[in-house]
Amino acid sequence: MKKIEFWLHRFVFVYGLVMLITFFMCLLFNPTSELPVVRFFGRCILLTLVSMATLIVYASSEELTNRAWWFRTILHAAFLEAILLPLAHSWGFWYNALDGVIYGSFILAAKILWHLIDFGQSFYTATQLNEQIRQRKLEERNKEDAANG
């Protein structure tokens, strides 16, 4: 159940990023465009699902080294750009080369934002786990002292 909750949380976060990026791109470069709401939301859901599918590059049977993590992060950014840019272009989310560069920059900015938020959540979780470990060690020492003392 925790994994489902984890992936749902990530889906909602990525969906929000996709919605914001697309909204600002349309606002900046084609403010008169009229996107049908259902089609727009559906396409954003598909962009989100595709973005989530690219996370497969992080799959590993063992813990990633720092170097391996950075390599996969760069690879993931390249995958996102290579997959999302043509898809968004075919749907009319951007039109010319300048739009594409800006849309690609927004994708990269969203990835950086994702990692910053993910780092903050991981840091918070690690702090909680470290506190639980300290508590457990303290309880074990107290039991040993009581048994020896």
Automatic annotation (TrEMBL):
UniProt name for this protein: Uncharacterized protein
Native species: Faecalibacterium langellae
Lineage summary: Bacteria, Bacillati, Bacillota, Clostridia, Eubacteriales
